[in-house]
TrEMBL record:
Record-stated family: Belongs to the GatC family.
Keywords: ATP-binding, Ligase, Nucleotide-binding, Protein biosynthesis, Transferase
Function description: Allows the formation of correctly charged Asn-tRNA(Asn) or Gln-tRNA(Gln) through the transamidation of misacylated Asp-tRNA(Asn) or Glu-tRNA(Gln) in organisms which lack either or both of asparaginyl-tRNA or glutaminyl-tRNA synthetases. The reaction takes place in the presence of glutamine and ATP through an activated phospho-Asp-tRNA(Asn) or phospho-Glu-tRNA(Gln).
Recorded catalytic activity of this chain's protein: L-aspartyl-tRNA(Asn) + L-glutamine + ATP + H2O = L-asparaginyl-tRNA(Asn) + L-glutamate + ADP + phosphate + 2 H(+); L-glutamyl-tRNA(Gln) + L-glutamine + ATP + H2O = L-glutaminyl-tRNA(Gln) + L-glutamate + ADP + phosphate + H(+)
GO biological process assignments: glutaminyl-tRNAGln biosynthesis via transamidation; regulation of translational fidelity; translation
Native source organism of the sequence: Paenibacillus agaridevorans
TM segment ranges: none
Record text on subunit structure and interactions: Heterotrimer of A, B and C subunits.
Protein name stated in the entry: Aspartyl/glutamyl-tRNA(Asn/Gln) amidotransferase subunit C
Enzyme Commission number(s) from the entry: 6.3.5.-
InterPro entries given in the database record: Asp/Glu-ADT_sf_sub_c, GatC
Length: 96
């Protein structure tokens, strides 16, 4: 598999990038070099290798979820930029 100039132009269009002809050629060469290097993995004999999701035998590294008291609302609101009716007030992000 190889990347063509047309592929680079298509991806650049999807990403809304304006690339010069030199950049398109450069990215085509670089992406093809990456794919060529990745194809070396196909040369490995993995018949005797068991599939794994992690290289180490880790089962669960998360701490126990322990319920504890929350901060009092007055203390939380001390750090809020603005407050209204006991809630943190932020600028609107959606237009109505």
């Amino acid at each position: 598999m190889s990347i063509t100039l047309k592929d680079v132009e298509h991806v650049a269009n999807l990403a809304r990038l304006e690339l010069s002809d030199a950049e398109k050629a450069q990215f085509t060469d670089q992406l093809n070099a990456i794919l060529k290097y990745a194809e070396k993995l196909n040369e490995l004999n993995t018949d005797e290798i068991e599939p794994t999701s992690h290289v180490l035998p880790i089962t669960n590294v998360m701490r126990d979820d322990v319920r504890k008291e929350s901060l009092p609302i007055e203390k939380v609101l001390l750090n809020a930029p603005d407050e209204e009716d006991g809630q943190i007030k932020v600028p609107a992000v959606l237009e109505s």
